[in-house]
Structure formats: C-alpha cells, structure tokens
C-alpha cells in the first residue's frame, strides 16, 4: 500500500455506484443483484445522489466542521473495481462474501446469534490485493465507501483525533449502508514516537474501540449497516483489544502459480502480445512475487517496445512517430524475461513466515 494510496482515500455513495448499473457478480456461490442493497438505502438519499452524482446526505452528528473536513479529505470517488479485476484469492472472496456482502444484502437474516462480525481484518504481505478487494466489495455491493488511513484520523489539537474518529462513524451512519476501510490499522497500535504521539494514538484507539462496539447496536436498531474492513501488513502489531474486535481475520497471501497467470492476463488485457509470449513461463519464473510486483513486471515489459523504437533517436524524430504505430508494437517474450530479471520480489521469505505464523494463531478460515 503506497503512501499515495493511503492519502487518496475516498467516499462514494451507494446510489452513485448503482447509477452506473453495476450488478453483483458471483463469488463462488449464488448472489443477488446490487439492486437488492438499494432496498436498504434511503430513497431520498438515492434520488439526490443520482441527480447530481454526489451524495447529499444530511449529517446530524457532532462537530459538523470536522465531518466536513473529513469528507473533503477522503475524496469523493467511485472505487470502480470489479470482483473479476481481482485475480485469484477465491477463499478470501468467499469469506468476504459471507462476512461483509451477505449481511449488507440481507440484514434481517444477520440478527441475534447471526449478527454480523464486528470488524473484518485482511492481513498479508504488501501488494497482494487487500485494498483492491475492499474496493471490489464496496463497488459490487453498491455501498458508500470510506477509505481512510490512520494518518487522516490524527488531529493536531488535543482531543481532535477522538472527535475525528467519532465523526467518521457518524458520517458512515449518515451515508449507510457504508463500508469503512481503514488501511494500515496496525499503525494505531504503534508505541514508537514521542510521548504525545503515543498518547494521541492511545486515545484514538480507545475511541475506535468504543465505535466498533457501537456498530452492532446501530445495525440492529436502525437496520442501516456500517461495516468495518481493515487491512495490515503487520498483524503482529495489533494489540489484543483491537484484535478481538476484528473478529474475522482473512489471510491474503502471495499469488500461487494459477493466480499469477490470471493476474498477468488481467494486466495484459489491453496490450498487444507478440506470438511466442508464454504466460505460463512468466508465471513459473515469478514465484514469490506479489500481485503488485507482477503488475510492475507487466508495465515494464509493455514499455520495452517503445524503448526499442525511440532508442538513439533525437526528440524531433520521436515526435514524428505516429501514436498508432507506437500502440501497435507488441510485447515480446524477451520483454517479459528482461523485466523479470530487472524487477526483484519485494516480499521476503521472513515476511511470509511471520504472516503464516500469525495466521495459524489468529487467522480465520
Ligand atoms: P495491498 O493493499 O495488499 O498492499 P493493493 O490492493 O494496493 O495491495 O495492490 C496493489 C496493486 O497490485 C493493485 O493496484 C494491482 O495493480 C496489483 N494487485 C495486487 N494483487 C492483485 C490481485 N489479486 N489481482 C489483481 N491485481 C492485484
């Protein structure tokens, strides 16, 4: 998860997503259409959102100025990621379907002993698709999506972090059904930094725990679902209090051979390939690479044709090369082999062991 991705959070409304006509895709089982989720969305909210493409939900919570700031900071975007854009991870998709998607589709079933999980944690090495999955869930369910990093919740003034956290959940309720996605949630538990930083994060965490505890109550009384999805590359840094509330813990591993093939194919959807490109061979050579590493390989390989074409040419000559000519240059097997050679895997075997150990102790299946 890059710093840029962390900062670029987003909130997008259910009706906005649904107005694009997305339908729920099947995730290894029978699923209904996103339209069903609409039944749970306040119709006035939907109307407004469809009219101007932006959600105009009335916010009656505390500290409206902080809520406005939060809403502005976490940009108004449609995640626009489909299930099919996420390669592999069928087990993770299945668990997300049961823990997040179905409770949003049929809240009346998920009552009492079947109450939804308070929070769902996705953990695993960086670049394996955790953020992508969160966006796919929100897009395909047609819910509001609030994508926030812990740094957006850290206020400058005494007490501001707690107020921001409270506002986040109040905003989420106003826009419900909502998925709140908190990236790098482990950073809340960090004990590093100055004494004041530590104190701020301790208070922020306490408020977050209170808000997570309150999620169930609001779900059962108003029928409006707010679901917490969190992600981390350092599950071991999450302390017990927070871990207990993140009741479902889904391991997002590195892609295996089949998933690497799928991932490469997804990446090359719109790219011209030369005869002789052997995706199986690329997948074989990239054991230990993350989804992000593989995407980088495909990008790098796809630039090679252009590099060959312009090599040694002055800029004036390059300007005259037709765009269509450039687009037609196919990516060759040599381009892939060169890229694999150049780009090294970013995840170490120590990282994998650390995740697998945590999974065997605390993970859900
Ligand atoms: P994480 O949140 O686990 O660090 P991201 O979801 O941000 O990783 O993934 C980073 C990028 O890597 C994505 O934008 C995508 O290009 C690629 N990627 C990673 N995993 C997958 C996957 N399973 N399917 C498709 N693309 C993936």
TrEMBL record:
Q: What is its EC number?
A: 5.6.1.1
Query: GO MF annotations for this entry?
Result: ATP binding; ATP hydrolysis activity; calcium ion binding; microtubule binding; microtubule severing ATPase activity
Query: Which enzyme type, at the first EC level?
Result: isomerase
GO biological process terms, alphabetically, are:
microtubule severing
Reactions catalysed, semicolon-separated, are: n ATP + n H2O + a microtubule = n ADP + n phosphate + (n+1) alpha/beta tubulin heterodimers
What are the alphabetically sorted keywords of the record?
A: ATP-binding, Cytoplasm, Cytoskeleton, Isomerase, Microtubule, Nucleotide-binding
Q: Source organism's superkingdom?
A: Eukaryota
Does this entry carry the keyword Cytoplasm?
Answer: yes
Residues that bind ATP, according to the entry?
A: 124-131
Q: Where in the cell is it found?
A: Cytoplasm, Cytoskeleton
Alphabetical GO CC annotations of the entry are:
cytoplasm; microtubule
What family does the Swiss-Prot or TrEMBL record give for this protein? Belongs to the AAA ATPase family. Katanin p60 subunit A1 subfamily.
Say what the protein does.
Severs microtubules in an ATP-dependent manner. Microtubule severing may promote rapid reorganization of cellular microtubule arrays.
* Protein name from the UniProt record: Katanin p60 ATPase-containing subunit A1
**Gene that encodes the chain:** KATNA1
- Full-protein residues shown: 118 to 482 of 482
